[in-house]
Design brief:
Layout lengths: L1 H14 L5 E3 L2 E3 L2 E4 L2 E13 L2 E10 L6 H6 L4 E7 L6 H15 L8 H8 L11 E7 L3 E6 L2 E7 L1 H12 L6 H7 L3
Helix pairs in contact: 3-5
């Protein structure tokens, strides 16, 4: 009987389409298409501060057996997606948070990144509302594309920039250690 149940479960897993995960009410696709490439979902978690749930951060990538260093140094596409779930997240707070994250991730050496960071921060010029989705795509050898609700807003050149931005969530000193682990599927 156990063998029959195991076989039926295996057949169900093969026949049924992959299901999206749901984290804090946000449905996360099992894969996303970026530049004609399919990126697979790895993990997601909630960024909380002072017990307030702010956004769902998720990681999508091409490569298997991910760890944070692989994502930051990979020669394959990857994406960090932020789904806003709190009205506490505003345009000004996103800008402040990204600046703080860059200061930490660059060990205070913002000078080589400052002009590109200023350009990137324009992604948050419009009001940020519950339900907004920001997708940052790491393109090795090129830089980073930033999308809001599926619309491309900017391309920032430079591997150093894309690695520093992703280090906010996946670096040695992430903004939220629990979120980092969840994004890596742990």
């Amino acid at each position: 009987m156990k063998k029959i149940i195991s076989v039926l479960a295996l057949i169900g897993a093969i026949v049924l389409p992959a299901q999206a995960n749901t984290v804090s009410g946000v449905d996360l696709a099992p894969s996303i298409k970026i530049q004609g490439q399919s990126l697979n979902y790895y993990g997601a978690g909630v960024r909380s501060k002072f017990f307030m749930k702010l956004y769902v951060g998720s990681l999508y990538a091409q490569q298997a057996e991910l760890n944070a260093a692989n994502v930051l140094t990979s020669e394959q596409l990857s994406a960090v997606r932020l789904n806003i779930i709190s009205s506490m997240i505003t345009s000004d707070r996103m800008v402040d948070t990204i600046i703080e994250g860059f200061e930490t991730a660059s060990n205070g050496n913002l000078a080589p990144l400052q002009q590109r960071l200023d350009t990137f921060l324009a992604v948050f010029d419009e009001a940020v509302e519950i339900g907004d989705q920001f997708t940052m795509v790491s393109i090795p050898g090129v830089g980073l594309e930033a999308y809001k609700n599926g619309k491309l807003l900017t391309l920032i050149e430079g591997d150093d920039f894309r690695r520093t931005l992703f280090a906010i969530w996946l670096g040695d000193k992430p903004a939220d250690k629990k979120l980092k682990q969840a994004m890596l599927g742990k």
